[in-house]
Design a protein that fits this description.
Blueprint: E1 11-21, E2 24-35, E3 39-43, H1 50-57, E4 64-69, E5 72-73, H2 79-84, E6 87-89, H3 102-110, H4 128-137, H5 152-165, E7 170-174, H6 182-196, E8 200-204, H7 208-214, E9 217-222, E10 225-230, H8 232-236, H9 239-245, H10 259-265
Parallel strand pairs: 3-8, 3-9, 6-7, 7-8
Antiparallel strand pairs: 1-2, 1-4, 4-5, 9-10
Helix pairs in contact: 3-5, 4-5
Bound molecules: adenosine-5'-triphosphate.
GO molecular function: ATP binding; ATP hydrolysis activity
Pfam families: ABC_tran, BCA_ABC_TP_C
InterPro entries: ABC_AA/LPS_Transport, ABC_transporter-like_ATP-bd, ABC_transptr_urea_ATP-bd_UrtD, BCA_ABC_TP_C, P-loop_NTPase
């Protein structure tokens, strides 16, 4: 297989990534190659290390190993440098400014790439890239409403819009569809497919219906390590994955395994 850059694709290469919390390895020697244009899903039981992995790649916790993006190692960079290099993320809890309008939230997020003296210029009108983001996330009609009145799903879409105006080329989304209705969840998946062709998208997710509908590649983490990677069908048939999830009656991935197998295993 050709190297990712020979294909003209953007990618993030993670090698031997380790996060050590005073002797406890929350992330333990993780290798990942994340390619532009694919929806990567990161799944695994609670405590598997998914969020810590993303924390490490966005500069929020120190890590060892390598995270190469456009010939720079993210692990050597500060969080604001990582954002400016095109890496963006959302958090499990929406982090929009509730008292500011949708438009103001986007304007502030877009300020990441503007010099301080140019910030006031944005108030003279809606910049094209903000308008475009509003349309993409479907919130044009709500642009002047305070973000606090948005429905749960709409807040998550606003957060995705904030990544768009930051021009994030790599997007990490942490449990974006948690608490969404079926309609919101499907709309979110379709949004990610639309914007994902030009980006590298990694979604941490427990909602297996969502994974089943939209994942191109699934990585299963367990105890800080990558347990398996592949299509959902490949993951489902992996004996180690079944072993980790079976017996955890309430966990999400159990329902990805054939029903008969679940009945026998639990
Ligand atoms: N700052 C920290 N110091 C010590 N241990 C931590 C710290 N942050 C996370 N951990 C531990 O690291 C492990 C991985 O946690 P993490 O939140 O990354 O898991 P996760 O896979 O994202 O789980 P969930 O699906 O519940 O969000 C857990 O055992 C957690 O308690």
């Amino acid at each position: 297989m050709s190297a990712p850059d020979e294909l003209g694709q953007d990618y993030l290469e993670v090698r031997d990534l380790t996060v050590d919390f005073e002797g406890f390895k929350a992330v333990d020697g993780v290798d990942l190659t994340l390619l532009q244009g694919r929806l990567h899903f990161l799944i695994g039981p609670n405590g598997a290390g998914k969020t810590t992995l993303v924390d490490a790649l966005t500069g929020l916790v120190p890590a060892t190993g390598l995270a190469r993006y456009r010939n720079r190692d993210l692990l050597t960079m500060k969080p604001h440098q990582i954002v400016r290099s095109g890496i963006g993320r959302t958090f499990q809890t929406a982090t929009v400014f509730e008292h500011l309008s949708v438009l103001q939230n986007l304007d502030i997020a877009g300020g990441v790439h503007r010099k301080a003296w140019r910030l006031p210029l944005a108030r003279r009108g809606t910049p094209d890239y903000v308008q475009h983001a509003l349309e993409t996330i479907g919130l044009t009609d709500l642009r002047d409403r305070p973000a606090g009145v948005l429905a749960h799903g709409q807040k998550q879409w606003l957060e995705i819009g904030m990544l768009l105006v930051q021009d994030a080329k790599v997007m990490f989304l942490d449990e974006t569809v948690a608490g969404m209705s079926h309609e919101e969840r499907d709309a979110t998946g379709e949004l990610l497919q639309r914007i994902g062709s030009e980006r590298t998208t990694v979604v941490i997710e427990h909602d297996m219906d969502f994974v089943r509908s939209f994942a191109d590649v699934v990585t299963v983490m367990h105890a800080g390590k990558v347990l398996a990677e592949g299509s959902l069908a490949e993951i489902q048939s992996d004996a180690r994955v079944q072993e980790v999830y079976l017996g955890r009656a309430a966990t999400a991935v159990a329902d990805t395994v054939e029903a008969t197998y679940i009945e026998e295993g639990v």
